[in-house]
Amino acid sequence: MNYKKKILAVSVLAATCAANANTSPEQDLIKRDPLTFQQWHLQNTGQTGFSLSAGNAGEDLNLDFADRMGIKGRGITVSVIDTGVEISHPDLKNNVVPGSKNLIDGSEYPVDTHGHGTAVAGLIAAEEGNNLGGRGVAPYANLIGFNYLDEQSIESWMLSHGLSEDFRALDRFTDPRVFNQSYGSTPSAPVNGDANEDPTFALQETVMQDITLDSHWGRGAIYVKSAGNSFSYYTTYINGERFYVLPFENGQTLNNQGLPFHNANISDLNTSFWNLVVSSLNAEGKLASYSSVGANVFLSAPGGEYGDDKPAMVTVDLTGCDRGMNVSGAHKNSLHGGSDLDPNCNFTGIMNGTSSAGPNAAGAVATVMSANPALDARTVRHLLASTARKVDPQNSGVTLNFESATGETVSYDAIPGWQTNAAGYNFHNFYGLGAVNVDDAVYKALFTGVSLPKLQVTDWQAKNANVTIPDADLTGAQSTMSVDDNLTIEAVQLKVNIDHTRLRDLAIELTSPSGTRSVVMSARTGFLSGTEGGYTDTIMLSHHFYGEQSQGNWTIKVLDTDKGTSSTLIFHPNKGFFGTNGNNNTDPGVLKDWSLRIYGH
Question: Where is the signal peptide (predicted)?
């Protein structure tokens, strides 16, 4: 940095801090409101979050510098796309700006009868210093809300995700620059990614692309997306009834040999480049027990456990002891159901899930944006990626042992531990590029004057393969294609067509020209046998190659990891258990063809 740039940077820092600071640096950020002392995700001192055990000190969002400088989301609006938001809540109302919508009755009050969306809003931007509850990650940010989960039409999706009713440009000061999506889907079969088969998905992609790149005079917006809560099991609907789907490896319920049962790359919403997908950390700085994971995870953020034996999140609840999360029955959490600190039950200590990790990341995004509002959305993403913290550094991933077709026991590196790619970025399928690190990202934002070069997106490049996938064999089916485009990679999408009758056996890997290996679909996924036949134009996403160069030979490898009986259970509370996926595929599968699309600059 030259002399003039240093002077300019210091001037920007001083001006930003002067404009934002209104709290005493000597006052700890977790001592300003009655419940902040238990909000471990803001500053983890080893507190319990009103649960029965403590977390590990230091495992938090790392926002002390931003807090002391008064950089807390001012001027950035976050849209909460959820069950609605109680916008009149005493700890939210002063941060609410015009723009909310009740998608059922058309009014401006997005009624929340559940409490989920209200809790999400509190994590993002609950007010600070009002002697009520806790605070949000970005307590000066603006909030708007939508009850999209109660009215999930395509029209409601477009309105809640930034496309205004009059189709005007999203460029007003109070228009959202951050969209939080603490919701998801758990398909029981691979999703067809052909736009002709699903025009809705193509429309959603177009809307998110336009708003990400072109809104706010070209500065754009960021869509934050929760990865999902289906590491161990998931739910699906059959003939309108809800069923639980569980692994049954080696005759043991919930045994999936340490692998995710529903990979985050299964949901088409999570395979969009425009969604910043977030997995969940607990207060010990490890993967939360429920969190979905995959190569499409961009970052990880605090989400907590269940608030009983281990801390969840302390955040806003619907007002009153007869509504929201406080009426969920007896609970070990000492804040639950009313306490001396919260006699009116306006707050909760049991909010969790990637539904919490998402808004914590969204609050971080708003904070970084407020540090330097001139930066565009992709540059903010890049700052978060380049400052992410290598959390749980000793995590070695998952090794899958299985009996090969020849009867030999073999070991497969089913999910690698932390890897450093050729561009120097760390990556883990559990944590993406790492844990959100607010202070380092804010500091970089203050001294970043130029946004990333213009985004380039290649056309899909296809390769016919027609390679047999040998049963229970580490050799797998491989195919290589050469990519001429020489981009600095921001993300890679893979599209596959594979014939196979028991997809839970398969693992899919992609290796870059630099030799970085990404497991884009892990083995032992919980697809249901009645829905299987293979992958048809199924899209997956990887951030494993972030910063690498795209030019050169790319290799796909598809492995079959099971020749035996590998069952999946379906459970209904009134109908009991049903087994599926019991028999091995009678014929080897085939990797028919595959395609790549590169996002980069």
Answer: 1-21
Domains located in the chain, CATH noted: 3-229+259-388+426-446 (3.40.50.200), 456-600 (2.60.120.260)
Whole-angstrom Cα distance, residue 95 to residue 122?
Answer: 10
| Secondary structure letter of residue 487 according to DSSP | -
Task: Find the helix or strand (DSSP H, E) in which 576 lies.
Answer: strand 576-580
Q: List residues bridging with 482 in a β-sheet.
A: 553
Amino acid at position 573, single letter: P
Q: What is the pLDDT of residue 199?
A: 85
In the chain, what is the greatest distance between 2 CA atoms, to the nearest angstrom? 73
pLDDT confidence of 20, banded at 50, 70, 90? Answer: low
Residue 38 DSSP class: G
Cα separation, 373 vs 355, in Å, equals: 26
To the nearest 10°, the Cα dihedral for 418, 420, 425, 428?
Answer: -20
DSSP state of 52: S
Residue 420: C-alpha distances to residues 482, 500, 523 (Å) = 23, 33, 22
- Phi, psi (deg, nearest 5) at residue 347: -140, 165
Q: What is the H or E stretch that residue 159 is in?
A: helix 154-160
User: Quick count: other Cβ atoms within 10 Å of Cβ 113?
Assistant: 14
Active site residue 89: no
439 is catalytic: no
- Please state, in angstroms and rounded to a whole number, the distance separating the CA atoms of residues 478 and 509: 9
The active-site residue out of 51, 91, 112, 116 is 116
d(CA 537, CA 494): 9
Look at residues 436, 425, 418 and name the one whose alpha carbon lies nearest to residue 285.
436
Pairing of strands 534-542, 489-499: antiparallel
Give per-residue pLDDT as tens, 551-596: 999 999 999 999 987 778 899 999 998 877 668 888 899 999 999 9
Q: What is the predicted pLDDT for the residue at 97?
A: 98
Q: Could you tell me the CA-to-CA distances from 256 to 42, 82, 262, 375, 403 in Å, in that order?
A: 33, 31, 11, 43, 15
Integer Cα distance of 87 and 98 in angstroms: 10
355 is catalytic: yes
What is the C-alpha to C-alpha distance for residues 373 and 366, in angstroms, rounded to an integer? 9
Angle between helices 354-371 and 438-446 in degrees, nearest 10:
20
CA–CA distance from 259 to each of 1, 292, 414 (Å)? Answer: 46, 10, 8
CA–CA separation, 128 and 51 (whole Å): 23
Q: What is the C-alpha to C-alpha distance for residues 164 and 99, in angstroms, rounded to an integer?
A: 10
User: Which position has the token pair 């997106």?
Assistant: 457
In the numeric block, which tokens belong to residue 129?
């210093």
β-bridge partners, 189: none
Q: What is the model's pTM?
A: 0.95
Choose, from 67, 82, 112, 499, the residue flagged as catalytic: 82
Catalytic member of 280, 355, 451, 567: 355
Contact 82, 362 (CB under 8 A): no
Read off the DSSP letter of residue 182. Answer: -
pLDDT surpasses 80 at 333: yes
What tens digit of pLDDT does each residue of 506-549 get? Answer: 999 999 999 999 999 999 999 986 656 799 999 999 999 999 99
